[in-house]
Amino acid sequence: MMRLVQACGACFNVRGLDAAPIQFIEEQDTELAYRARKVNTYIDEWKAASKAANQSATYIVGYLTSRALQTNKTAPSDSPFKALLDIFTEDFLAVLTAPEWPASELLLRSLIKNLYACIDGDSHGALVKNVALDALGQIAAKIRAVRKKLRMQLSAKSDDDTDTMNLITRVADYSTGMSATMQELENLQQAYRIVWAKADSGMRDALRYQVCSWATYVISTDAIEDDEFAERRSGPLLEELASISRSGTAEFDSLSLPSDLEVSLAHITLLVRSPLFQSWENMLSRILRSMSEKQPTFRTKALRALGQIIVADPDILSMQNVQQQVELRVSDPSPQVREAAIELVSKHVASDPILGKEYYTMIRGRISDAGVGVRKRVIKLLKDIHFKSDDREIQAHIEESILSRITDEEHSVRVSIPVIMWG
Fold this sequence. Notes:
By secondary structure, the chain is mostly helical. It has helices at residues 2-9, 30-68, 80-94, 103-120, 126-155, 163-172, 182-196, 204-220, 235-247, 260-271, 275-278, 280-290, 296-312, 320-330, 335-349, 353-364, 372-388, 392-403, 411-422.
């Protein structure tokens, strides 16, 4: 499926355009007019190829999701199309950072739109919404993990860094959007050339697909008059992209070829600028909003989806909007949701004294919870925070809270306290 999408994005013609006839205009510089016409022809080809790739991705994902996430309320969770969707999602995520499979970003982006429709729509049953929310959590977790790993790799700089590494680091700091300066566009294209430096015949479609995607972005940053022969500021960049498309690789001196690590970092740095990665905040917002839905099972599933992201990056628990939603779910009317919220927090808070302090107050209040499972989880979590904390006041409060459950009406809770307190 990815090969098909990439083939669509690679299906453009930038060969033989030198022979295209030129319409001469009085007092028009013929050479500039000729170059402008060539560039406009390239643009038409790239726009058509980009449209074809988008249509193919939309059709593929639409076909899968329409059958895997059926709109009726009794959609089977073990349907073959549901299994196929899971496999395809896992495969798209597995190759997301591989330069050979750039179409995975577009397919995942198309998938997210369909997942949003399932989560937001009133016509979908709980099973469908739960499946969609789980898939959204997987994608959001992968994006967060890739971002975190890239930050760590780029921050580990040394005095021996090459010019290539310095370029990648600069590009990583560029803002996204359509207001890129010419210097930024040139540096971004140089980063793409790093990715294409070692391209072989097996990467032909992948390279041309990336050229098409990047060229479409470059075109969108231009502001020119509606004139066929108007000169674009990005004209030289587009001409270079056409040349790279024809040759199937980016020319580099044999002594300055980038390393495999530099190729990988350049690709991921550019990937982080993609629409998929830029929509991460919307994904998190959708998951947090789902934690306030009416059905307890859906709120629980939203907590599980958030848990996938937190596993990828526990720092998420420090975000204010996340803390607010978790606090609400810790006091949720449903004991099932309260237990899921405590479980979510317990996996990470106990190992981080700072997070432990931030979540301590909301957790301590649930030690008298009506749910037996909730009380047990809270007691164990408070014990873990107790031994990790160096705040004597917090430790004393925890000891007092746990000892207060010695008279608990539930035998299993009373029996667990000596084991918890003294191991």
